[in-house]
Amino acid sequence: MRLSIILPCLNEIRHGYLDRILANLIAQNGEKEIIAVLSSSDDGTDLVLESYASRFSEVKVIKSLAKNRAQRLNEGISSSTGDIVLLHHPATLLPEQNSLDLIDRALLSGSDWGAFQHSFDFSHWLLHFTSWYSNNVRLKQKGIVYFDHCPFISRRVLAQIGNVPDLDIFEDTVLSDRLRQFSKPVLAKGKVVTSARRFHQRGIYRHAVLNQILKLCYLLNIDPKYLNRLYEKSYSINVKY
Predict the structure, then answer these.
(1) Boundaries of each Glycosyltransferase 2-like domain copy (predicted)?
(2) Which of 53, 86, 162, 180 could form a disulfide with 59 if both were Cys (CB 3.0 to 4.6 A apart)?
């Protein structure tokens, strides 16, 4: 199995995860390609990506005019060649070295897609609960996979649903809804680690409340562009306003 890893990037230096992600991906055992899709950035993200691409043949950098994360992911998918596509969150680390083997084993269940177990890089009871809920209720029971779980999907099925929905926010929820038409997601045994930066920026409790408000607004069909502006405010993490 050849795995295509799509890494969407927008001013990633500030998060302190880019070098760690690239080193983690290069160290993974197995046949893979790493495609970083970079929207216009002004913090040196391009220099870091190009440095890795010049030293490692499996790394490819695409400079993109994409406006949001979904468009960056789709551009990377279109340029990729693997049988399985992994949509990599830009502030998450995969399990070390054996992630491809964990994906192989998970997909032996017959599912067309799945994701890793989730955890944060900061210890707090609410963040532990958030990860537990995401793993055991949202993913296992409801079949909804957020991008910070680094979902992996059969190229065949991705093509049938038209890849990632072009939305500024909740594109992963809509993607999950479409993928569930084919099969339930399978949970790989490995655990990813995601930056808790957004919780630090706003405060853990304030950000947790905002997440719940946004989910309610999504159910009420409020415009995703407005919701993402509310979510990102001045940080421009997924969309550059």
Answers:
(1) 4-87
(2) 53
Say if residue 129 is exposed, middle or buried (CB neighbours under 10 Å; 0-12, 13-18, 19+). Answer: exposed
Residue 39, CA atoms < 13 Å, CB-side half-sphere: 23
CA–CA distance, 148 with 151 (Å, rounded to integer): 8
Query: pLDDT tens-digit profile of 142-182?
Result: 999 999 999 999 999 999 999 999 999 999 999 999 999 99
| CATH number, residue 127 | 3.90.550.10
The 3-state DSSP class for residue 189 equals: strand
232 belongs to a structural domain: no
Instruction: Tell whether 240 is covered by a domain.
Output: no
Rounded Cα–Cα distance for residues 147 and 69 (Å)? 10
What average pLDDT score do residues 214-226 get? Answer: 93
Q: Looking at the domain assignment, is residue 179 inside a domain?
A: yes
d(C-alpha 42, C-alpha 151), whole Å? 28
Q: Contact at 8 Å (CB) between 194 and 118?
A: yes
221 part of a folded domain: no
Type of residue numbered 99: S
Q: Shortest CA distance to 88 belongs to which of 101, 102, 77, 104? A: 77
Give the whole-angstrom CA distance, residue 87 versus residue 168: 16
Residue 116 banded pLDDT, cuts 50, 70, 90: very high
Tell me how far the alpha carbon of residue 18 is from its chain's centroid.
13
Residue in the block written with tokens 């963040």: 127
Report the domain count for the chain. Answer: 1
Q: 3-class SS at 43?
A: coil
- Beta partners for residue 59, in sequence order: 34
